Each structure stands twice: as C-alpha cells, then as structure tokens.
Amino acid sequence: MSKLQIIGGTPLRGTITIDGAKNSLLPIMTACLLVNGSVRLRNVPQISDLHQMLHILAGLGCYINRQGDTVKIDVRQPSTYVIDATAARQIRGSIFVMGALLARLGAVELPYPGGCSIGSRPIDLHLNLLRQIGVKIKTSASVIRATYTPKRQRHTTVLTLDFPSVGATENIIQATTLGYAGNTYQIIGVAKEPEIVDLCNFLNQCGAQITGAGTDTITVTSVARLHGTDYTPIPDRINTGSYLIATAVTGGDVTLRNVIPAHNQNLINKLRAVGAQINTTSDSLRIVVKHRRRQNFAIHTAPYPGFPTDLQSQFCVLLAVNRGHSTITENLFENRFRYVPELRKLGAQITVQGNQAQIRGVTQLHAQTTPNLCPSAYHVPDSAACTGTTLHATDLRGGVALVIAALAANGTCTIDHAEYIARGHQNIVKDLQQLGANIVALP
Ligand code: UD1
Description:
Layout (H helix, E strand, L loop, with lengths): L2 E5 L4 E6 L4 H10 L5 E5 L6 H12 L3 E5 L2 E6 L9 H6 L5 H10 L1 E5 L12 H9 L3 E4 L3 E5 L8 E5 L5 H12 L6 E5 L5 H12 L3 E3 L5 E5 L7 E3 L5 H14 L1 E6 L7 H9 L3 E4 L3 E6 L8 E3 L11 H10 L3 E5 L10 H6 L3 E5 L2 E5 L28 E4 L3 H13 L3 E5 L11 H7 L3 E5 L1
Parallel strand pairs: 2-14, 3-13, 9-10, 17-18, 21-22
Antiparallel strand pairs: 1-22, 1-23, 3-5, 4-5, 6-8, 7-8, 10-12, 11-12, 14-16, 15-16, 18-20, 19-20
Helix pairs in contact: 1-2, 1-7, 4-6, 5-6, 6-7, 8-10, 8-12, 10-12
C-alpha cells in the first residue's frame, strides 16, 4: 500500500486481535544468532521491519522458514560477520546484530543503522557499553568494525549505562549472554521496557542465565551454549495503545484481544481521565467511549513506565479534538512533531516550540469533502479527484496519528507514504475495516 483513503466520522465498534510486538521480535530475532539450533517464533506479523531483519539473518547464514504467522530460524553457525549494508540501513534494529555476532563470532562489520527519521539517533551508548566489556571498535564515516575476545577466567564486571536506552540494553545483553561460562556482568541503569523482559525471557528459555529484567539492574551470567526453543513474543503494546486512542477519538466500543493491559497502564489512566470506560481481563481490553470530558494534560514522554514516545503523536490527536488546553513535551526524539503541520491542515490548533507542543482542543477536525465521488464505505473511488485533504506521513507512529485524525475528521483524507505505517502494522486497513471504519488502501 502506498496510500490510504479514509472517510472519517464513524465510531469504531468490534473486536480485533493484536499481533506480536515488533520491538520485541527485532532483538529476539537477532538473539537467534546466539542459539545453536532451531527457534520457532509465533504470532509474528508480516511487517516490513521484520522482513528486513529476516533478510539480514538470511545473509548471515540463517535458514528461515515462514508458515503463516510462525517463523522458524535455524542457526547452526553464522557464515559471516559482515552485515548486508542495504538491509541494515533500512532499520534501526540492525544495530542489535552487533552484540549477538560479537558474542558468537568475536567480530562484526555493519553500516550505521537506519530507521524512522525521528531524530539523530546516535549509538554512542551502545558502543560505550560494548567497550566496557573489552570490545575493540573502529568507526569510519559509514562502517562500524568491532572485535571481541571474552576473558577466559571467571570474573564479575560492573557496567553502567548513563541513560536507559532500550537498544543499548538489548545489545549488551546479547553480547554477554554467550561467553566463558560463569563470567558475570552486572549492568546498572538499564531500560525497563516490557520488550527487554521479553528478550530476557526468550534467552532464558534457550538456557541463558539472566536476572533482574524489568528492574534497573540486570545481571547476566554467561553460558557457553544456548539451545533452540519455541517462543511467543508479547503483544504489541504500541499498536494496542494506538487502537485504544483511535477509539477514544472516534467514540465507540472496541475489544482488543491478545493484550497485556499492564503494559499500557499509563495510557489507560489518561484515557479514563477523559471519560473512557476501560475494562480489562488478563489478556483483553474493552474500551467504551460515549462522552469525553474536558481535561488539560501535561504529557512528558519518558522511558517505561513513563508515557511512551511511540504513542505521543497518536495521543496528540486525542488532545487536538478534546476540550482543554494541553502540552506535550517530547524528551526522547527531537523530530517527533513532524506530523503537526499535517494535523493543522484539518484545523487542529497546535503550536510547536522546541520539544514542546501546545494543543488547544477543537470540537471537530475538518477534511475537504468531495460529495458523490466517495459514495460508500470500502468503495475505491472511481475518480482520482476524490482525494479530499492529502496528509503526508513521515514516520511510522506519526503516520498512525494521521490515520486516527482522518478517522475523526469530517470528510475525506488521503494519507500518502503509507509504507511508513507498514513498518509496524500488518493489517491496519483490515483491522479498522473490521471496526467499521471507511478506509481503503490505494496503490
Ligand atoms: C526503541 C524503540 C523505539 C522507541 C524507543 C524509545 C526498537 C526497535 N525501537 O528505540 O520504537 O521509540 O526505544 O522507547 O525497540 N540514545 C543515545 N545514544 C545511544 C542510544 C540512544 O543518545 O547510543 C538516545 C536516543 O537518541 C533517544 C534515547 O536515547 O533520545 C532513547 O533511545 P533508545 O531507548 O535507545 O531507543 P531505541 O532503542 O533506538
């Protein structure tokens, strides 16, 4: 899909099931490089970031077999430590290959990783941690080359992370899990995201010895060998959050299956504050929104369990249509307000200064209407003239925010560069159609 066309104004109603988490699966897939054997991953969505990662693994000599939503990854011995540059430049997650290959082969060569252009996204924290365990790193303008020989005597190393970077935490875990059996690494100041816990659970199921995941200190005791396993990752809490916000924006009654409600507790509290009724079971969430209450928010994005930067743009749409004056302070990525000019095309009253957005809620967003050209739901318009307001997606989460805004607006919106949304959503069109939205994908 390269474009989405949405006729807004329909409350969402129905039930959908959430896929496995992209941000868990990326490091879990690279962690397969540590395993001597075969790993079966379940509930794996067909999204472009994961396709790219599987392509990288295939280039390193892994045998990959996908059947439906199950992916089998077989790694007897990686055949090279040089990572395919084209694929690595597409996704930020390619950096996780570093820790895994250093542990398995003692060497790695990769280009600087790519990913959504939401900020400068440095990798100094990754490299600092790796240097603390003795990795030798040489960087040039385009390539990182590193080698590593773990100490072959039992010792305990204390490592510190200056900021709880998710990726740097995942990288050092992979670099230390496999090694001289009994070596211990105490890593202080790590990220506490559920995806970190998921990676550690996966590795422990393969025979690793990792404790403390979900707290700010993780202890890894290296083992000499990991074995294969069968693993189902946690559900995607960001996609879960996006659908919760979409329902709060349009009104309606939606049940999400295959979720872990505790992973979205921060968001759930805020949605309840605007009047959403949310009921949870151990693996489902039901949100009913009849009337929203006026509410002023001061949102600050922060590492977990703070408000997630990956839900900032979607939540901004809710603030834009809810009575009240709110602010959002983006503390993680400096380019995360690129969607704001697009929302302003629909009449949203948002101003951005530095890393802060001021939002004055309006009662309704308005897209251009093209009556008679878009006669019915799910109907691809006959005329190219039926584009309504065109909104430009510039990254995955910002793109999803535009979809949510279009669902709420009067009139028709066309969202281009929908390939960004496909990085993280397997079925956004099918899911939203199932919930009654008027949305189609256009070539
Ligand atoms: C991961 C997620 C991303 C999410 C982010 C924050 C994946 C594949 N991506 O990204 O969806 O938005 O966590 O929850 O899991 N930083 C440095 N130096 C570094 C590394 C990071 O300064 O070496 C900074 C970043 O610029 C940013 C902050 O640390 O300001 C957080 O980044 P980090 O937690 O590393 O995010 P990612 O792992 O890239």
